[in-house]
Amino acid sequence: MNELTLVKKAIKGNRECLEELLVLHGDQLYRTAYLYVRNCEDALDVVQETSYKAFLSIGQLKNEKYFLTWLTKILINCSYDVLKKSKKELPLSNMIELTTDEREKREENLDLLEAINRLNEKHKNAIILFYFQDLSISEVAKVMKIPENTVKTFLSRGKARLKKLLGGMNYNGEKITSKSI
After folding, report:
1. Which of 168, 149, 79 is nearest to 121 (CA)?
2. For position 97, what pLDDT does the model report?
3. Which carries the bigger pLDDT value, residue 92 or residue 13?
4. pLDDT digits (tens, 9 = 90+) for 6-27
5. With contact defined as beta carbons under 8 Å apart, do 29 and 53 qualify?
6. How many CB atoms within 10 Å of residue 152?
7. CA 102 vs CA 110, 112, 125: distances in Å
8. Sign of CA dihedral 98, 99, 105, 111
9. pTM attached to this predicted model
10. Quick check: 143 and 129 in contact, CB under 8 A?
11. 57, 88, 119 — which closes off a domain?
12. Does residue 94 form part of some domain?
């Protein structure tokens, strides 16, 4: 059964179809939630809360083509709710010892996540939705409720800021340094 058919049946009240859709998009939802909350357990909580809210309000979805956009919007709101509720630190005892290669890769990933989280909200949302959620410019515009050209501007400015934060190279191959860090 194709995705649009599943969405149509879910809107009409078929909970099994909605469950199948949530399973189908589960990995993508988890990755996006993790980008926002930066914690495995909280990301799982966000996905669970998103699923719950989707079950409650699937009947309100007007256009089945925008199911994933609608679901992503719920996920973002749930992520912000979790972030507001939990301002906690990870205990040192939970840290595991890594090999040098694993440590370098993890540090790069953490650097990227930290840099993304240092962006202002509109640039952060645009970057996450476009690059990590793989939404098109028009879908990002619908989720964020802004014009498509504004999304393009947010992506461009967000990428430029990330390049500065991460110490990227300019066109001449010279190292870019940021004075704001």
Report:
1. 79
2. 47
3. 13
4. 999 999 999 999 999 999 999 9
5. no
6. 15
7. 12, 15, 28
8. positive
9. 0.62
10. yes
11. 88
12. no
